[in-house]
Amino acid sequence: xxxxxxxxLPRRKTLSATPGQxxxxxAIAAFLLMFLVLPVAxxxxxxxxxxxxxxxxxVNFYDFFRTELFMRSLWNSFYVSAMxxxxxxxxxxxxxxxxTRFVFRGAAIVQTLGFLPLIMPPFVGAVAMQLFFGRNGSIxxxxxxxxxxxxxxxxxxxxxxxxxxxxxxxxxxxxxSAALRNIDRAMEEAAQNLGSSGFRLFRRIVFPLxxxxxxxxxxxxxxxxFDDLATPLLLNVKDMLAPQAYLRVTSIGIADPMGxxxxxxxxxxxxxxxxxxxxxxxxxxxxxxxxxxxxxxxREMTRWEAVLGYGTVFLIxxxxxxxHMGLLLLSFATIWSYSPLPDAFTxxxxxxVFGESSVYIKNTLIYATLAGGIDIVLGVAIAYLVLRxxxxxxxxxxxxxSAALAIPGVVLGIGYLRTFYGVTLPDGTPxxxxxxxxxxxxxIRRLPYALRACYAALQQISVSLEEAAENLGxxxxxxVRRIVVPLMAGGILAGFVTSFSTAAVELSATLxxxxxxxxxxxxxxxxxxMQSAAGRGPGAALGVVAVILVAACTFLSHLIIExxxxxxxxxx
Length: 572
Description:
This protein has 572 residues and is mainly alpha-helical. It is 71% helix and 0% strand. It is built from 26 helices and no strands. It has helices spanning 19-47, 59-66, 68-101, 107-115, 122-133, 138-147, 156-181, 185-193, 198-209, 211-227, 230-234, 241-252, 257-281, 303-320, 322-332, 348-355, 358-388, 394-402, 409-420, 435-459, 463-471, 476-487, 489-503, 510-513, 522-529, 536-571. The radius of gyration is 26 Å and the shape is globular. The two termini are 19 Å apart.
C-alpha cells in the first residue's frame, strides 16, 4: 500500500481555538490565579498596607530597612548566595572541563556521581557534613590530634556556604558540561594555531563561549541558596532572610507585616537574579558553526596532567559525596560523638522509621503522587494550548506557570496561610489546615519542571500527524487522547517523575503548612528528627529512605528519556 505524502493531505485552515479549548484555558487560568497568583498577591498586599487596615503604606519597608537585624540578614543572604556560587563554580569547573575536553576514563561515572548531591535534601546534608567537618567532627578531631589545630568549616555563615555549594554545584556542572560539548572545537584549534593554549585558551575562548550554560547554572544556585530555609535553621544561623520570614510568622503570627515585607524582598531578589543572568547574555552572539565534534578532538593527558586531573576529581568527589557517607554511617550508628567514626552499629533506627515514622513515608507517596499528577495534567494542557492553538493570551498560561520558579517556598507557604486560613469548611476547619493544601503547594512549586518536560515532548511531535487524524474524521479531543498523549508518553512520564522526586523532599513550603504529625510528609519528619541529637539516628535512616526514593525516581526518569529517544530514533 502506497503511503500518502504529507504534502498531499489537505491542511487545516487555521489552528483556531475551539470552545472546549477556551474553557480549558479558563479553568487552568482560574487554578493558577487561585493557588499561585492570589497567595503571592496577598503577601505583597499585606506588605504594603498598615496592620489591621487596608491603607497603603511604605512604613513597613521603612521599618525593615532601619532594623539592624533585617539589614544584616539581607546582606548575609546575598553574601552566602554569592559565595556559594563561587565555591560551586570551583567544584563544577574542573569536573566539567576535564570530562568534556580530555580523554578522561570514567567521565560518565564522574558526571553521574557529580549529580548525586541533588538527590539529598540540603538540610539533611548539613547534619551529615557536621559529623565530618563540624567543630568536633572527624576531620577536625584528626587535625587536632595530628597537628594541634581545628578549622571552622561549619561555623556560622561558613557552614551554610559549605553545605549549599556542595549541594547545588551540580546545577553548574550539568549546564556548563552541556555548553562545553556544544562548542565548535574548530574555534579552539584556530586559537591554538595562533599561539593560545592552557589557561589562556580556557579564559579567552572556551569559557566565554560556554557562558550561557554557566550563567544558567549559577543563577539557579544563587536563587536556590537565597531562598533556602531549613539549612540555615539546622545550622542555627537565623540572621538570613528566609529564616527571618519563617520565624516572624511562626513566632509573632500571620498578622505581623514584617514577615510579608521579608517575603517581598525574597521575591524581588529571586526575580532580579534571573533577570540579570538573562540580561548579561542579551545582545551577545555565542553561536558556533558546528556543535561539539567539529575540529579539535579530545586531547590525551600527559602523565603529570593525568595525576593532577584525577587527583583533583577524586578530591572533589570525595568532598561532595561526604554527606551521603555521613548520612549512611549515622543511620547505622549507636553513638557517634567526639570520635572520627561511630562507636558501634545497629539496625534499630530503621526499625523505628518503618514502625513509628511510616506515616511520613505514606504521606509523602500520596502527596508527591497527587502533586505530580496535577502537574502532568496542567503541563500537557498548557503545552497543547500554547503550541497547537491560536488562543489569544495563551502565552500568559506558560508565563504564570513558569513564574513559580521565582517564588520562594517560604513565601508561598506564608501566602497560603494568610489567604486560606480565613476560608473555612462547613465544620469550621480552616482550608489552610487541610492536607490537600500541602498537595496544592507542592504542585505549584514543581509545575515548571513538568511543564518544560511536556513542552519539549510536544515540540518533537509533528502537527501533520494530528492533521491527518482530523482529516480522517477524528475530533480534536479524540486526536489528543489517541495520538498526541501516547506520543508524548516519554516526556509525560519524565515530567511526572521529576515532579514526584523533587516534591518528595520539598520542605520550605510544607514547613509552614503542616498542622499535625499525622499529616506531615517525609521532609517535615526529617526536619523534626534532626532537631535533637537523640533523633538524628532515626532521622538519618529516614534520610537514607528519602535518598533511595529520589534516586530511584531520578534513575527511572533517565531510563524513560533514554528509551523514548531510542524509540524515536528507530521510528525515523
